[in-house]
Specification:
The structure is a homodimer. The first copy, chain A, is globular, with a radius of gyration of 18 Å. In chain A, strand 4, helix 2 (about 50-55) and strand 5 form a beta-alpha-beta unit. Chain A contains 8 helices and 14 strands. Chain A starts with a strand and ends with a helix. Chain A has a 6-stranded parallel sheet, sandwiched between helices. A 4-stranded parallel sheet of chain A has the order 6-7-8-11, with helices on one face. The first copy, chain A, has a two-stranded antiparallel sheet with strand order 2-3. By secondary structure, chain A is of the alpha/beta class. Chain A has helices spanning about 25-30, 50-55, 70-80, 120-130, 155-165, 180-190, 200-210, 240-249, and strands at about 5-10, 15, 20, 35-40, 65-70, 85-90, 110, 135-140, 145, 150-155, 170, 195-200, 215-220, 235-240. Chain A folds into 2 domains: about 5-40 and about 175-249, HAD superfamily/HAD-like (Rossmann fold); about 80-170, Rossmann fold, CATH 3.40.50.1000. Chains A and B meet through helix 4, strand 10 and helix 5 of A and helix 4, strand 10 and helix 5 of B. Chains A, B: It comes from Pseudomonas taeanensis MS-3.
Chain lengths: ~250, ~250
């Protein structure tokens, strides 16, 4: 039995804005068993407050503190390192980072899923800062995501563009980076080897968690595709979150 | 003695809009010796007509037909393959591709140095076409270029972004691709082994040419940096175009 549980959100708790069958009850069961819990996500289009509002709207009984998002991990890192970033992030996050946005002389570049702010002028500004030695930080390097039936470009392609242009490598502060899983576990005060990560993305959620020392569990909902389990040897497998919680928690 | 000569333009013929010392006379010498000649460039911000206008303005006695540019290579390829591309190119090239621009159902994506047209909406449109199976074609994959004292993002970073997003590999129809050098030599009717490529970019011009079967010559002007010759073993080396022509042509 794990001492703490990390859950991916999209494709595990809900799909197309509707909770997946049995998932609300499964989270309730985890909470009532007293498992320290974090919902972990790379989403950088929404604030934690908005994610919380959406999940409670679907019936999930969670607190805002139980959401550990890539933007939250980025804030901790930036403040711990005393960085003054140039922020290339979504307008929805402006409020969350309001106290850190204005930097007279940026010495870092932070990328989220900036959507239409990924344009030539903003990318060139970031490129010049990278050439001057600023580190490149990103909230995930996902290729794309599903939204209302369409695939949308995520931050990953723009991370690759800037890495190639400036000849640098980004530090990713989202799944599947070890730093990200470690940050979530630090909040819970639990060692990686005592924690279970449940997700539908075999690479980012499951294999990433295994690489960070956690136990991984792949659920066959969301973006799961038949055969994915082969990419994370040793991972647990469950049909959905309800079964995963029932069998492994 | 080579039967044909290919010359890079920027950094070999001119720098900062001024002809390099001895280069005008060197091109004159090549022409008077009767060497079949092509000026080869990945520039996709300018039409061949405009490049010709600039070079003749600097005193170069060349014809428009002697310029072999990545856009020209792209046009040949697109027409030979009967493709209907979605064009993500610079506004300066709109005129050059006017007869091919409007495509009702694009079945290919063509990238040049599109400058401010590299925005989220255009890239996402290209991404969706790639997911539907359209091939990705690019006029070079250069990281950046110098312009009026500043470094500007070239097409390469956006090629990488789309390759990563869609999980595809681009066909590059500019230096250093074999197809590009072969296209220039085909116009001249000369075999690769009988041709000499002179350039200042050790990777794109010189090593690329060597890989395509040409003899390569690196000149120590333009973007040349001390030690570059180590990256193209077997290449000829000259201080500038004047010396290269005098010694090797």
């Amino acid at each position: 039995m794990p001492q703490a549980v990390l859950l991916d959100i999209s494709g595990v708790l809900y799909q197309d804005a509707l909770p997946l069958p049995g998932s609300v009850a499964a989270v309730e069961a985890l909470q009532s068993k007293g498992h320290p819990l974090r919902l972990v996500t790379n989403t950088s289009r929404l604030t934690a407050v908005e994610i919380h509002r959406q999940l409670t709207g679907m019936g999930y009984a969670i607190t805002p503190e139980q959401i550990y998002s890539a933007p939250k991990a980025m804030r901790s890192y930036v403040q711990a390192q005393g960085l003054r970033p140039y922020w290339l992030i979504h307008r929805n996050l402006q409020e969350e980072f309001a106290d850190l946005l204005e930097q007279a002389e940026p010495n870092a570049v932070v990328l989220g899923d900036a959507e239409e702010r990924f344009d030539y002028a903003h990318l060139e500004r970031a490129f010049h800062l990278l050439l001057a030695g600023a580190p490149l930080l990103a909230m995930g390097d996902n290729r794309y995501f599903h939204s209302r039936g369409a695939l949308r470009l995520d931050a990953g392609p723009f991370v690759r563009a800037l890495e190639y242009a400036a000849g640098v490598q980004a530090l990713i502060l989202g799944k599947p980076s070890k730093e990200f899983f470690a940050g979530a576990l630090e909040e819970l005060g639990v060692a990686a080897s005592d924690a279970l990560m449940i997700g539908d993305d075999v690479e980012s959620d499951v294999f990433g968690a295994q690489q960070a020392g956690l136990l991984g569990c792949l659920v066959q909902t969301g973006k799961y595709r038949s055969g994915d389990e082969g990419k994370a040897p040793g991972a647990l497998l469950a049909k959905d979150l309800a079964e995963a919680v029932q069998r492994f928690c």
